[in-house]
Write a structure and sequence with these properties.
The mean pLDDT is 86. The protein has a five-stranded antiparallel beta sheet. The protein contains ten helices and five strands. The protein is α+β, with helices and mostly antiparallel strands. The protein folds into two domains: 104 residues, Orthogonal Bundle (Ribosomal Protein S4 Delta 41, Chain A, domain 1); 87 residues, RNA-binding S4 domain (Structural Genomics Hypothetical 15.5 Kd Protein In mrcA-pckA Intergenic Region, Chain A). Helix 2 packs across helix 10 and helix 3 packs across helix 4.
């Protein structure tokens, strides 16, 4: 599956949204959005004065959500199809739930890694356990009560220690013990608990056209 490997800040600037694609840099003064940079390219400044069309509004909102979780279009579309196929929970809320329950996102949300990209790499390298079993699939869906721990190698990583030491806020649906490098899924996340500033209605309308 192809992934975007070019400059991450370019995507944030194009969407005029902080996507937190570069970990701790996104929370510092070096962030391109914080520095007030225009869109990428020689015509980037024109984007500030041009009104988006209806299609562009829907596309950009979809791109914001997809890129925030670092997913390819085909994979993101499959999540939408799965969310849209059930009726118990509104499609937008279910979509956010499925994305949040990804193991790489949980590692990021617990503060073990400063970004989802580095969290995904950590999972792929086999440094994460779920309920005592090694899981190297970033898209693995955690369940309520799951316990996430690290290998000794994972605990000794400088990046992990620095991220945990910074004491980032943990969502209400997760708990994390920095002394043990251990976290627990307390409940299934709801759209309100996730707190991502995304208009899921625009995403739903984009795929419904």
């Amino acid at each position: 599956m192809s992934r975007y490997i070019d400059a991450s800040c370019r995507k944030c600037r194009a969407l005029n949204t902080k996507l937190f694609l570069k970990g701790s840099r996104c929370s510092s003064g070096k962030c391109a959005i914080e520095r007030g940079k225009m869109g990428p390219g020689q015509h980037g400044i024109d984007q500030k004065f041009r009104k988006d069309s209806d299609y562009e509004l829907h596309l950009k909102e979809k791109q914001r959500l997809r890129l925030a979780y670092g997913l390819a279009e085909r994979q993101f579309r499959s999540y939408f199809a799965l969310a849209n196929s059930q009726k118990a929970i509104p499609t937008g809320g279910k979509l956010l739930e499925l994305l949040e329950r990804r193991l790489d996102n949980v590692v990021f949300r617990m503060g073990i890694q400063p970004g989802r990209k580095s969290a995904r790499q950590m999972v792929c390298h086999g440094n994460v356990f779920v309920n005592g079993h090694r899981v190297d699939i970033p898209s693995y869906q955690v369940r309520m009560g799951d316990v996430v721990t690290l290998t000794d190698t994972g605990k000794s990583m400088i990046g992990v220690q620095e991220s945990v030491a910074s004491k980032p806020a943990t969502p209400q649906w997760l708990s994390f013990s920095p002394d043990k490098f251990e976290g627990t899924v307390l409940t299934i996340p709801t759209a309100e608990q996730i707190g991502i500033p995304i208009n899921t209605r625009l995403v739903i309308e984009y795929y419904s056209k």
